[in-house]
Amino acid sequence: MKTKEFFGKIFSPFLLGNLLAMVVVIVLLCLGVKYGLAWYTHHDEGIKVPKVEGMIYNNALLLLEENGLNIMVTDSGFNKRLPANCILAQSPGEGTMVKEGHMIYVTVNSPSSPSFAIPDVIDNSSYREAEAKLTALGFKLLPPKVVMGEKDWVYGILSRGRRVSTGDMVSIDSPLTLMIGSGMYDQGDEELDYVEPEYRRMLGEDVDEFEEVTEP
Known about the structure:
Low-confidence stretches: 190-200, 209-216
Structural class: alpha+beta
Radius of gyration: 41 Å
Distance between the termini: 128 Å
Oligomer: single chain
Number of helices: 5
Mean pLDDT: 81
């Protein structure tokens, strides 16, 4: 086959027509997918999420329903400077474009401060360990009260002057006072040594057979 005949067959009108048709079909398919998906998903059509943070829940509910959106409470918090049932946070945030019927998740303000159980720190941990556990729960700690005992060991917890125990539910608004050891002990806690009565008689002392005396 001559070169001229070879190129003549490659660039024949029939082959070029088929190639052009294939290109047109591919372009139409791409355009169809692009605009078809945009039409199906209502692309660039949406609702701008209004700001409900700071609003009372019932008012936020009405506002979102007017805009074709739904609301769901997923968590609660406590801020004593805000009224009860006030929206503390929302997701998605203000200004986000969403589809009609989209769910807006909110955190509402609790009407009272939360309470937590006192963890097992009494007579079971040092001052630093107890401090870390209690502050992690949100409790405020007052300066500790020093008592006789092993240094920095936690012997008790006071809440508003009342002694609390492990597992007691206490509001985080109630400050706690840890009772920790000073490293000193009462004299009555010192060890007693037993001195043989026979030896004391030899010294001319009158002793009780059952008397315990401290080491001089």
